[in-house]
């Protein structure tokens, strides 16, 4: 079968469509034939080497996908050939087929399409843990989400609104502002034309927000802290604009006894129980239409380099899927 392989770290050009042998599933493993694979900014981090690959180079990128079980290894009892499944992590999704531990996959409900599932597992479970566990959003909360027109952002806007929050988002263009406004955001700030800190203060009457969800990193720090109410929470869960430089933790005291966390999805779904609970919560809101998943871009998996270039140039919105 074929897969995208990275033999050296670098730009999108290091993504090569090559023959790749994976063999048969071992004990506790299944083989999946992908019908679709999700594109996420974390894929860029592994490609560039910002995040080290678990098994070194060469690596097959990709952290989410959906497909059909084609073979099971010894000791697998919860899945069988023909089952529709989806997953978020571990790395290795940019392939026609893959081997994966059975404990890392979940059965996909019949009413959720494969391409929708492939593009929502990582982003959707990220939205779930941010909104339900990192800071459990309550009716009356006010939240700020950076990159509101991105894949996670469009899900967060809808989900947070359904929880009764006032939802503020930042974007980089008027087109993205319209998209965010159509996905639950009460207030959308174009950070290219407005100072987001001042606008947040205006919107909240000077009080600040309860939580800032920040996947941008360098470009939004320390401004994100200035948007928070006293004892508010800054959840820094990505760094699309580059890593945040080391800072003196005393800044949290100076700006209002703030809380800060650097969560990752894979910690929040590390146990089988947490994974299943997170996936089921996502399937529930999608099945009920509370959260709608729009696939805004599709690329052949063989053209993953083009997809990465567009993603890094911020030319994509919402969910993107790659098709083998």
Automatic annotation (TrEMBL):
Question: Domain of life of the organism in this record?
Answer: Bacteria
Q: Which InterPro entries match?
A: ADH-like_C, ADH-like_N, ER, GroES-like_sf, NAD(P)-bd_dom_sf, QOR-like, Quin_OxRdtase/zeta-crystal_CS
Gene3D superfamilies for the chain: Medium-chain alcohol dehydrogenases, catalytic domain (3.90.180.10), NAD(P)-binding Rossmann-like Domain (3.40.50.720)
Sorted UniProt keywords = NADP, Oxidoreductase
> Where does the record place the Enoyl reductase (ER) domain?
10-322
The membrane spanning regions, by residue number, are: none
Annotated PANTHER family: QUINONE OXIDOREDUCTASE PIG3-RELATED, QUINONE OXIDOREDUCTASE-RELATED
Q: What is this protein called?
A: Quinone oxidoreductase
